[in-house]
Write a structure and sequence with these properties.
mainly beta; Porin; 6 helices; about 10% helix; globular
């Protein structure tokens, strides 16, 4: 074993042990395509659509590095509509996060509930989330200093270090969020809308530990907004109307924060392309820049959406060192599956999908474009 390899192992050991025993845990974040993981950003989005909806998303971070981060996300949510202007949303969310070469992983399972009320021009939502999670690590893959010799390298398979548990305590967590959306103009689908939301995660600051030390999770705060509007004559046929979306997501937890600014537009009915910029403190003008994001959404049918994004690292880490980050996902809306009171089922059969507040005559709008407007 050469000296460089030895020093590298010692650095990994010290970093990993310090992180396991003293560092504050950080949540994995999806901000490259925040329309694909809405309920991860804000539990108030549970049941926001009028039908059962399911999504899966995987994030492969810094693919050229050994032990790269991988995060898998899956969710399902549906509304129960009990009046024309109000519904209750229910959902389930699962996150599986793996990092490094030492078998570190965290699995998170969370049921969600939300309530939405609306008028002719607005929707207001409030959501709650209760999650159960657990952290695991394979201590046998760690090398401690008493196992190393400065000249011979690894000399012992055992250590006198006080190794912690393979699994952490069961973490019980509470989070909440709120959402406001307002339509622009007289025709909701054709003129556009804007939305604002905020959420707080780990409200109760649960204990998360592998070694018995009392370490509390820091709260994570998220603020997001989106404006969606037509930039061409909205009286044109909808397959020729150009829509623009401008979105912003801010995350902060402990000493870390990220700002992500998104711009996206459609090319016909079936393709959306977008560009985003992520920085640490301020969007666009921050010298602590992190990455440029390219994203794409293909809508082959009114119910199916395929999403992909690629993050190019522009920080000092460099794109050549990390090879960037990939996100791939699928979203499916079960258009024939919905839950509502008997009264609303009868109204829905007569009027169609009333939760979208469709004005008379708006059925000519392609559902591919219309479905994008529920964010």
């Amino acid at each position: 074993m050469d000296l460089l390899t030895l020093y590298g192992k010692i650095a990994i050991v010290l970093t990993t042990v310090f992180w396991c025993t003293t560092a504050r845990a950080q949540d994995p974040t999806f901000s490259s395509q925040f329309w694909a993981d809405r309920i991860y950003i804000n539990p108030a989005y549970a049941g926001i659509e009028s039908n059962l909806s399911a999504s899966m998303l995987t994030r492969q971070q810094w693919t050229s590095l050994n032990g790269r981060n991988q995060t898998n996300f899956a969710s399902v949510d549906a509304p129960y509509q009990y009046s024309k202007n109000a519904n209750i949303g229910l959902g389930l969310r699962m996150v599986d996060h793996r990092a490094g070469d030492v078998g570190y992983g965290k699995f998170d399972f969370a049921p969600l509930a939300s309530a939405h009320i609306g008028g002719r021009n607005f929707t207001l939502g409030l959501g709650l989330q209760y999650s159960l999670s657990q952290v695991r690590i394979d201590w046998s893959k760690l090398v401690f200093s008493d196992q190393l010799d400065a000249y011979q390298g690894l000399v012992s398979q055992t250590t006198a270090a006080n190794i912690g548990n393979d699994a952490s305590n069961l973490i019980q967590d509470l989070s909440s969020g709120m959402l406001f959306r307002y339509k622009l103009g007289g025709n909701y689908e054709e003129r556009g809308f804007f939305s604002l939301g905020a959420s707080v995660f780990h409200i109760n600051r649960p204990r998360e530990t592998l070694t018995g030390i009392d370490r509390r999770m820091d709260r994570r705060y998220t603020i997001h907004g989106l404006a969606h509007f037509a930039i061409s004559n909205y009286r044109k046929p909808m397959d020729k109307t150009v829509f623009m979306s401008v979105g912003y997501v801010y995350n902060t937890q402990s000493v870390l924060s990220t700002n992500t600014l998104h711009i996206r537009r459609n090319f016909g009915e079936y393709l959306f392309l977008g560009l985003a910029w992520r920085s640490e403190n301020y969007p666009l003008f921050d010298r602590a820049r992190e990455s440029i994001l390219f994203n794409m959404m293909i809508i082959p049918t009114s119910d199916l959406r395929l999403v992909y994004s690629y993050d190019i690292v522009v920080s000092e880490l460099g794109a050549q060192t990390t090879s960037g980050t990939h996100e791939i996902g699928i979203i499916y809306r079960f258009s024939e599956v919905f839950f509502s009171s008997s009264k609303m089922k009868r109204a829905r059969k007569r009027e169609g999908d009333c939760w979208y507040y469709q004005p008379k005559g708006s059925s000519r709008i392609p559902s591919n474009v219309r479905d994008m407007l529920v964010y």
